[in-house]
Write a structure and sequence with these properties.
This protein is of the alpha/beta class and about 425 residues long. It has four domains: about 1-50; about 55-160, Immunoglobulins (Immunoglobulin-like), CATH 2.60.40.10; about 165-170 and about 175-185 and about 230-430, von Willebrand factor, type A domain (Rossmann fold, 3-Layer(aba) Sandwich), CATH 3.40.50.410; about 195-225, no CATH class. Helices cover about 35% and strands about 30% of the residues. The strands form five sheets. Strands 1, 3, 5, 7, 9 and 10 form a six-stranded mixed sheet that branches. Helix 1 (about 5-20) packs antiparallel against helix 2. The longest helix has 26 residues, at about 380-405.
């Protein structure tokens, strides 16, 4: 219960008028009567608002799944079940991990009528969360007090990795504008996989693709058409160790890596392949590759509460575990963010996996390193910092050359560039028939 602006203003006026009593003593009895009258009215109004039961009901409409770091709408419906007009202030008790705009909301409600309002939340991390209810400030009958009421209205939501990239990919794929995401259409090398069908010759077809028997039979040039092999397996090894806790503009490295992994899983599903995930580095999970109509949705459901831990990633143990779990030759993509002291372990883990699988190591580079390279060097300390940075980046490039020497593919990219880089690498592998 708090005094409303009307009561505060009345008290201020009464206090100010008391300053005139020493000059005009005859005002004292009148002032006393006014003070008693104000106190009596305020107490009566307070009693009335405390006595009345709940007049307000609250319902909330919110999606059960929300994307992390993306705005999502929440709609509130507030109903006045009383017999008087109310000017209420509504504040929804959203989870602490959410930021919200357009709250609190002031609404004018006629008797027996409902009002609707909408605000926006932006979840800052993934996981399960709940909206506990709402807090409504209801005025007293004379508008001298405002009583705060808690109205229970519980809703459970799940915050998933940012799946806007998947939606955007699908829309761009339909409109053939994937270049907007930095994804290149790869030209198939050779015959690229499995025979698909015969079709009429098109200008630009290679001569070796002409089927001469069919040409002689139909009396016109007929070409053979091939498609990439299907039902192949991808396994993502996702580092959840302390290196992936680093936060950038798009979220933590793990958040951005998981969004990129799910995008590629969606692309692979459209290509007829199956994707699985093995997480390590404090939170070990295994989701085997499986071809179903809901494969990507299952990956979302099983990884939405996956968070980076403070543990160190054991690359060799993770590689041995994946080798034991995935017996079929697959495309294994290790997503991590290594430091100089980790590079030997990353190399040995990749070599272990490469005995059976085609391996891609996606080693995330902090974007601050790229920004630091562009900073002008004007002091000795700046020169030393730049030299240390160049040595570190040179070591990363040298590791990439070692990977290439052993037939291991590698990506040295920032987290923001990872989605397009992964998809392009996958399409290139499919087009070359390397898997």
């Amino acid at each position: 219960m708090t005094p409303a602006p009307r009561l505060i203003q009345a008290c201020c006026l009464l206090t100010a008028s008391a300053l005139a009593i020493p000059l005009l003593p005859w005002l004292a009895p009148l002032w006393t009567v006014l003070a008693c009258l104000l106190a009596g009215v305020a107490l009566a109004d307070c009693f009335l608002v405390l006595r009345t039961g709940p007049e307000i009901t609250l319902t909330r409409t919110v999606a059960t799944t929300l994307p992390v770091s993306a705005p999502s709408p929440v709609e509130l419906s507030v109903c006045n079940r009383g017999h008087r007009r109310l000017a209420v202030t509504v504040h929804d008790l959203h989870p602490a991990a959410f930021s919200a705009s357009d709250l609190p909301v002031v609404m004018e409600l006629e008797p027996g009528r409902c009002g609707r309002t909408r605000y926006t939340v932006v979840p800052s991390r993934r996981g399960r969360f709940s909206f506990a209810g709402g807090q409504v400030a209801v005025p007293s009958p004379l508008a001298l007090w405002r009583r705060r009421r808690f109205i229970a209205c519980r809703d459970e939501v799940m915050v998933f990795p940012d799946f806007r990239g998947i939606i955007r990919f699908t829309l761009l794929a339909v409109s053939h504008e994937l270049g907007g995401m930095g994804i290149r259409r790869m030209q198939r090398r050779g015959e690229g996989g499995e025979f698909h069908q015969l079709r009429e010759y098109r200008q630009g077809d290679e001569l070796r693709k002409i089927d001469w028997k069919a040409t002689s039979r139909y009396g016109r040039l007929i070409s053979r058409e091939y498609e990439d092999e299907r039902d192949q397996h991808l396994v993502f090894m996702l580092d959840c160790g302390r290196r992936m806790r680093h936060v950038e503009a798009g979220g933590s490295l793990l958040d951005q890596a998981l969004a990129a992994v799910l995008l590629l899983a969606h692309v692979a599903d459209r290509q007829g392949d199956a994707a699985g995930i093995y997480s390590f580095g404090g939170d070990e999970r295994w989701i085997a590759p499986r071809r179903t109509g809901r494969a990507v949705r299952e990956l979302l459901r099983r990884t939405f509460d996956l968070h980076a831990t403070s543990a160190a990633a054991d690359y060799l143990a993770a590689a041995a575990r994946v080798s034991a779990l995935q017996g079929r030759r697959s495309l294994v993509i290790l997503v991590t963010s290594s430091r100089a002291e980790d590079q030997e372990d990353v190399l040995q883990a990749a070599l272990l996996l490469a005995r059976r699988h085609l391996v891609v190591v996606a080693d995330l580079r902090e974007s601050v390193l790229d920004a630091e390279q562009q900073r002008p060097v004007t002091t000795l300390a700046g020169a030393l910092r730049y030299q240390a940075l160049r040595e570190y980046l040179d070591r990363r490039q040298a590791l990439g050359r070692v990977f290439a020497h052993h037939g291991i593919l590698s990506l040295d990219v920032t987290a923001a560039a990872l989605p397009a880089a992964l998809v392009n690498q996958y399409l290139e592998i499919k087009g070359a028939g390397r898997l």
